[in-house]
Amino acid sequence: MKVELTVNGKQITADVEDRMLLVHFLRDVADLTATNVACDTTSCGACTVLLDGESVKSCTVLAAQASGHDVTTVEGLASNGAMHPVQRAFHEQHGLQCGFCTPGMVMAIVSLLKENPHPTEEQVRTGLEGNLCRCTGYHNIVRAALAAAETAEVPS
Amino acid sequence: MSIMGTRVIRTEDPRLLTAGGVYVDDLRTPQLNAAARLTFVRSPLAHARINGIDASEALREPGVIAVLTVRDMDDLAPPPPSSGEWDGSPTPLGGPWSEPLLAVDTVRFVGEPVAAVITDTSYQGEDAADLVTVDYDPLPVVLGPAAAVADQTLLFPAAGTNIAIKNAVSTDDTPFGACDVVIERDLVNQRLACLPMEGRATAASYENGKLTVWASSQNAQVSRFILAGALGMPPDQIRVVVPDVGGGFGAKIAIDRDTITLAWAARKTGRALRWAETRSENLVAMTQGRAQLQHIKIGGSRDGRILAYRLDVIQDAGAYQRVGGLLPFLTCLMASGVYDIPDVQAGFRQAVTNTTPIAAYRGAGRPEATAAIERAVDLFAAEIGMDPAEVRRRNYIAPDKFPFQTKTGAMYDTGRYEEALDKALAAAGYAELRREQQRRRENGDPRQLGIGLSSYVEITAPDPDAGETAKLEVKDDGTAIVYTGSSAHGQGHNTAWAMLVQDELGIPMDQITVLHGDTDVIPLGVGTYGSRSLQLGGSAVHNAAIEVKDEARHHAAEMLEAAEADVVLDTSTGLWQVRGDPDTALSWAQVAGHTTGGSLVADVSFVQDRPTFPFGTHVSVVEVDTETGQARLLRHVSVDDAGTVLNPVLTEGQRHGGIAQGAAQALLEEVVYDADGNPLTSTLADYAMISAPDLPSFELASSETPTDLNPLGVKGIGEAGTIGSTPAVQNAVVDAVSHLGVRHIDMPATPQRVWTAINEAQKASNQ
Which of residues 78-137 of A touch B (CB under 8 A)? Predict the structure, then answer.
């Protein structure tokens, strides 16, 4: 079937299998490989992207369902070469090690801070329940989220 | 000022944060443009005979290129004769104990690869794999180490037993005879899934007689030699590339049968191939960790002196012995931990079972040792009614006894165990925690407080003589390239190695490129495991920098027409000059340009005389809801001393991740099978992988006791957090309900286990 998505501001039209998942559309059709797949039960959140500004797990959305909508991946987050405050906070707080969960984790936090610009540590931890990381013990990811919330710029 | 020991954020991050890493499945290299997908057909049964495989229906599906089975592996050499003990060589086909690439006539665990389906796309692969019909005759199943050693059903009838390797423990009870108190019991160190966020992934292409394999691995060079042996190819016809790796934790040490099969299939079919396992595949087919049944016996005097300790391990190897007896060997080596115990007995049996093979998982044999002795010490403390901190204090190896030869054969390099305890107790506010615990006990609070301690010592770089390579090149544009045999998968080698070069040569970090994981560029190397990278690989980089500096001094002296002894390098500016004469300054670009080749190069290998032994104490605070059995980790304080710290940012990151994985074993995670050997935890919806709300922020206190075994004074920190944290959390859970008569709760301390332990203790006290 024919789908038409706007990904990171760019329109992409393609003929895909009905069953194609959004994450596979992003990786294989749009050739945006930052968004990773790390489970097959919607448990890990590595594939988290923004769909019309709200975080979704792109392994649980069909490309067809996203047709006509706006998708933002971590590749589309920086503007004019400057990292988004959440990306910068991850860098400064050592919020990533192997980097595999990171794109999904960053997008989940962007969404979390949009809903709740000044969360407590507990709210950040609860908000990240659906995003798994094996390297960091979540310690510095939580610090990065809290640090990003402290920055003057309002995350988009 | 030296950059060593300062907080430097990682050079790796900007790319990972803005464009994402390039993991195997992200590769868009031209060689893989037309790559087909490989999908494994895996055994749904834990133990069965294979009567036949029918691929005819699958072959009729669109996009199916081939369905390969072991019968197609006629181009591989016959298996080497097996002595029954693993000799370190790959085992392509057949033979007692050995593991085939694809199942021959028997499957021995759910998830064992039976056939490989090759299709144009991955969706077609999943469809076609479902249509491959395998005719199985189920066989009786062996589950759990205790059943395995009974030898009633054999996995390898030709071997005559399920016990593959053993080093029997002493049964001499004499040392316990002199003890006031002797306690013995079984402890379960449960099977865990390693769960790097990126599962296994491999791509391969075979062109003009050269095989290129891209693998998600901790060791490119070792992988090349394994492929050469398994496929019967000269190593120089194989290139292994390890791109970004999404975590390893021991389960990606080298490569396993799935990757070798894919490489073989690429050669066989002439098609470039890709495979990236699904999580459901990963949770049954990637090696798992721990899986020991331990029997401990501890004896001592009523004044708190431990006099004798015995550890008898049955290691569940899973269906095939991936790493020989390495894990229980390390467990036994580290059996007595930080304690000076006059009599120590340790031994093991390793048995095969119809489960996923066991190999290294963060700590690899040492967490099991620490869990056993730290639980034993708490049992002893409870029996004699002494504070567990005090019992530990009375039994530590004294700081003036190092280097210390243990009864089990380890040679500890340096250690200040009591100091680590004091720091941890102070950071935790131990006395106040005990008072709060007492208050809750007296009030009959349904939410009881538990305080758990763990003092640990572990072995890092356990194979110091294998060493590590480093080549350093300073070019005539003033930039430097580090070629390292070590291999990062999240640890931050690029940042650390660049710091080492900047510190020695004064070349700024942003002018230094660190390369690893490509055997065409770096043919020799060992890789990352056993917390060896900084002490071996980092020391190699450090020594290479010193060699480059010596050579540069020679050239600078010539250029400046001065004696070498009068030529100095200012590492704050990276300029060479005659001592006291700044006008003579030469840059690295100028000095490198003076050489005939236009660059200064040092190629070194660093070996260490002995392993190093990091140590520390963890204090864990949990709250247990006595009505539901729910245990919640409130605080975790750690002192981890791994010698000199190069970059606290990286060290702390390693400790955080380690603590979380250790706490996960104590509280949540366990691979579970049903009675037929079906895994019940084969998705992330079923396996209780620890997540952010399960954990508090960690409280780290620093301690640095350098080793004298390498020029940097460093020990490994990658696994210490895991080793230290598990017993602290487990002990805290038991401590929370010890006043109710509970002495032990096996891991993971799930609500059901904790609730049952409380109820059984109460029933016992009512009788």
Answer: 78, 83, 87, 90-92, 94, 96-103, 106, 121-122, 124-126, 128-137
